[in-house]
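The following record pairs a protein chain with its ligand, S-adenosylmethionine.
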Amino acid sequence: MRLRNVKGSREVMQSSEYVFADPKSMAGTWKDIFGNNNPIHIEIGMGKGMFITTLAMQNPNINYVGIEKYSSVLIRAVEKQNELALPNLKFIRMDAEGICDIFGKGEVDKIYLNFSDPWPKDRHAKRRLTSKEFFARYDKLLKADGEVHFKTDNRDLFDFSVEEVTNAGWKLKAVTYDLHNSDMNEGNIMTEYETKFSAEGKPINKLIANR
Ligand code: SAM
């Protein structure tokens, strides 16, 4: 993801009712924020937000929260949502390392991880969003029957993730090494990176993990 400084992006964040730009503790507050008891699905590392915005339009009875570290990327999703004004879509600008301050125990029903940064050096493995350290965080905030859905073109990251699911004490509910030619593709929503990589002929890997 290109980290250009987009002029005014911080100001747009501060003035939008759809984004929490400097979140502190928010655990247990989501029913009040959305004003209902609908399930909560989150995407971590949502980039420009095409995936989560499409899901929010298709599923008005599910609440969606997109998490992204950088304003310069998130701004695209915020600008779009300022126009669409979907009542079931919010964003948070933050590093997901602090996610347990944002959602309480069992407050989340599903987690999406799409084309997460690979952090190729071994010494950075803990930063991968599919590391066992991140699964320990997901264990706290996901409901007992909740799921993690992960897609990537990066085979090394995918192989690491498949192993890490087991290392974390989770189960692999489903795995494919060629999503677009598998029955797991039904209802698939493409992300920005997925569109780019599949146009280049790269197969897309997907796993679903649960406990
Ligand atoms: N999910 C989008 C897609 O598939 O098109 C974007 C993929 S991009 C390669 C990864 C995104 O995750 C970047 O926008 C990056 O800033 C964000 N990201 C990486 N680590 C993160 C973290 N720890 N917390 C929040 N966002 C993160």
